[in-house]
What does this fold into?
Amino acid sequence: MRRWWVVLLFLVLLVGGGYLVYRARAEASTAQTAQWKTVALSRGDLEATVGATGTVRSRQSAVLVWQVSGVVGKVFVREGEGVPADTVLAELRPDTWPQTLLSARTSLLNAQQQLDDLRRNAQVQYAQALQNLAVARQQLKSAEWRYNSIVLYWDEEKAQKEYDKWHNLVQSLQQQLHDPAMAAMQSVIRVQLEQAKRQEQVAKNNLHPSEEDKAKAAADYQLAKAQVAHWEQEVQRWQDGPPEAQVALLEAQIAAAQATLDLAKIKAPFTGTVTEVHSRPGDVVSPGSVAFRLDDLSALLVDVDVSEIDINAIRPGQKATLTLDAVLGREYHGVVEKVARVGTTTPTGINFTVTVRLTDADALVKPGMTSAVTIFTERKTGVLLVPNRAVRTVEGQTVVYVLRPGASEPIPVPVVLGATANTVSEVLKGDLKEGDLVVLNPPTQGFNLFGGR
It folds into this structure.
């Protein structure tokens, strides 16, 4: 009987000891498990973003400097004033111009006078050419008739008839000249008689033309044709004004002289706002002296550097949000306007410049301010999401630490990530599924891809 009590006591002690060991181990496991912060994986929507920091700038900016020495005469604008392109902002006093500008003024006046004279002379030349062309054509007509009469189509019978016609006319006009009844027509008859005598002489010469006469008629005919061609060219040359080459030369001289004279002025190269004024009337300036700063504030832009890893996800037209250190509690919006085609090498890798244009900028936003930019690249729905806090890089491999059921220690699971947002990323590949517990504070080995340890 006593033996049974010993066995029973031994069994009680054995069970109790086992229970105590089990409870101690369970408590130790629970305590160890409790040190891990976990979250269950789930599917959801993700709006992929790329973040970067840049500086606000105007669409266009220029620092305008004086090109020549002199004394500032007038300043026509104030700081903050908007001006159209080519507006004169300031000019030097003419009595302080350097010699180069004085010479340019003389050259300009001379070239303008020459051009005016050339254009006026063109009208005279055109009228003279028309007059000479008319005379040349009349001479050609006479030369052609004589050439045809004694060379090309000479006929003795016709020549005789032509002579008789003019001879009889001369006789008739001579009789009328001595007729008292025609006294009132004396002056007209004399003119007609002189013309008839000339034609009679021509017809007489054509009665028996010599070889010398024929050669002369042919030469006169060719010369008359050449004269007509010459004056036709002159008419063509002057009818549209002076020769283009001469006009172009004088206009080039005028433009060069004017460009030199313009050095005495500061002009706005584009439409914008005068943001700085450094010149005042009476200031003595020299080449390189800063006069104004001009900014095109019609649009404010932010240039940010984006890594080559993310650049192919960015395209013009994508939306963005912007926050500024100088404007607390306010979020602005923008749109990607330009993506650089060529990257630049930096100590941290290859970066590409992306330009974002603010679409709702107000008076608080000024060029030079620092801005954090978030560009929305794409939207995905129903994808497996992992918190960025849980992602680590171990020995060059991207991993997520998972706490499996019943395990006391998390295990690293290699993954391939896709699109990334501010707090979560898309899981493309990896031994993960919905409901898995990923560790937000995994072991310290490895670097967090999104900052921190």
Remarks:
- The domain at 60-93+263-292 is CATH 2.40.50.100 (OB fold (Dihydrolipoamide Acetyltransferase, E2P)).
